[in-house]
Write a structure and sequence with these properties.
By secondary structure, the protein is of the alpha/beta class. The protein has helices at residues 39-45, 48-53, 112-125, 138-150, 164-172, 184-198, 211-225, 242-257, 277-283, 310-319, 329-343, 349-363, and strands at residues 6-11, 17-18, 33-37, 83-85, 99-102, 130-134, 153-159, 176-180, 201-202, 233-237, 266-272, 323-327, 373-377. Bound molecules: pyridoxal-5'-phosphate.
């Protein structure tokens, strides 16, 4: 058995083959490269039952990942993330409870660990010593952590108003971090322009081929957790779209292996109404998106005015008969409060956006009551601002001031 069954890289726009044994960024056509595998051989040599018997987590999928051998694996303990049913939170009458895949349990508290574990492992296998990234926060935190683990230097460029905790965790994990007075696309330009001068490798979303391979494990994992079936609908908070494209790619690979059958889940790209380029392009029937002006939203992870993989995201939505939907920031905040208070699950604003979108889609008749729905919470809610607590109690006069609970009625 080979460790990895990866064979080559393929241009997502032209299909042109690229060598997988060299360090690669974008394709010759300037588009994202996708890793391809010898699925026919893997189908003969591995069964899904063998996968089920391995320890859970990202590396159980090693044949479907590009890392050539175990020596280069850079790991911080990438667990299988749980599926949590929202049994208590409001849902329209007759609807089955949606399920949250809670990616906040991963190292560095977000799904970015999946992509950066792979990208750093691959960069390490090619002898890269310096890496740089434009980041809304979580990707930078994951890059800093995995780069530290691999003994690489990391440089992170964040928009000014990136959540404080992200900036601090990046710095504490040994990376160099700057606040930039612009958005993520401006940060991306800085990374690209410093490449020659500072000799760093560009780890931007989809500008290297391996982050998407890590993110694809969300889809592989979902299939094995659901006993090799897939949900009917998946709501995904979409910024650069790596996770959405990655899952779609992963399911196609599982189908080619004969490990899953039937239609793909309908993919739903969730954005904020303050930055919704994919929703606008989807609704207009366009094949690519135009950049969003004056992007703003409290869900910083999905504040991406222009995504390099826009054309693949749109293709994934259409081919799976899915759709794109935007929600207001006020609805995101309400959703976050509701799920925390009623189901005890602390979502990130991006995760809360998927729940708000689910409610809106259900009300609009875009999903059916019996649909098995999975919502992605891509980061731990603990990373984001929470309401301050102002109530105080004075030990000298306990239970005298302020609001108190009503006594329980006698049994
Ligand atoms: C919490 C969170 N959700 C969603 C996203 C968007 O992810 P993707 O780039 O896969 O669309 C991000 C990206 O920064 C994020 O941090």
């Amino acid at each position: 058995m080979r460790y990895s069954y990866a064979t080559h890289l393929e241009c997502s726009a032209t299909g042109e083959r690229h060598d997988i044994t060299h360090l690669q960024g974008l394709s010759a056509a300037g588009k994202p490269l996708l890793a391809r595998y010898d699925l026919a051989a893997l189908r003969r040599e591995l069964t899904r039952a063998e996968i089920d018997q391995r320890p859970a987590g990202l590396w159980r999928w090693r044949e479907l990942l590009p890392v050539p051998d175990a020596r280069h694996v850079t790991s911080l303990g990438e667990v299988e993330t749980p599926l949590v049913e929202l049994t208590n939170s409001t849902r329209p009458a007759g609807f089955v409870p949606p399920i949250v895949k809670d990616e906040g349990r991963l190292p560095t508290g977000s799904f970015k660990a999946r992509g950066l574990a792979l990208a750093v492992s691959m960069a390490r296998s090619f002898g890269v010593r310096r890496v740089a990234i434009p980041t809304n926060g979580n990707a930078g935190a994951a890059l800093a952590a995995y780069a530290a683990r691999a003994g690489m230097e990391a440089f992170c460029f964040c928009p000014d108003d990136t959540p404080e905790i992200n900036l601090s965790e990046i710095a504490l994990q040994g990376a160099t971090v700057w606040r930039v007075n612009g958005l993520i696309n401006d940060c991306a330009r800085l990374v690209a322009s410093g490449k020659e001068r500072f000799g760093w490798f560009d780890m931007s979303t989809l500008k290297e081929p391996y982050r998407i391979e890590g993110k694809k494990t969300m889809g592989l994992e979902l299939a094995s957790q659901m006993r090799w079936t897939l949900p009917d609908v998946v709501f995904y908070p979409t910024g650069g779209g790596t996770g959405l494209i990655g899952m779609w790619k992963g399911w196609q690979e599982l189908a080619a292996l004969g490990w899953i059958e039937g239609p793909m889940p309908r993919l739903v790209a969730v954005q904020s109404s303050g930055c919704a380029p994919i929703v606008r392009a989807f609704d207009a029937g366009a094949e690519s998106a135009t950049p969003w002006e004056n992007a703003h939203t409290i869900a910083s992870g999905i504040r991406v005015p222009a995504a390099i993989g826009d054309f693949i995201i749109l293709r994934a939505l259409r081919e799976t008969r899915g759709f794109a939907i935007a929600v207001e920031d006020a609805d995101i905040e309400r959703a976050r409060r509701e799920v925390a208070a009623q189901d005890g699950l602390l979502l990130s604003p991006e995760g809360a956006a998927t729940y708000a979108a689910y409610l809106a889609a259900a009300r609009a008749g875009k999903i059916a009551p019996s649909d098995r729905v999975v919502l992605f919470n891509c980061a731990s809610g603990l990373k984001y601002p929470m309401p301050p607590v102002t109530a105080r109690m004075d030990l000298r006069r306990p239970f005298e001031d302020g609001p108190l609970p009503q006594p329980l009625p006698r049994a």
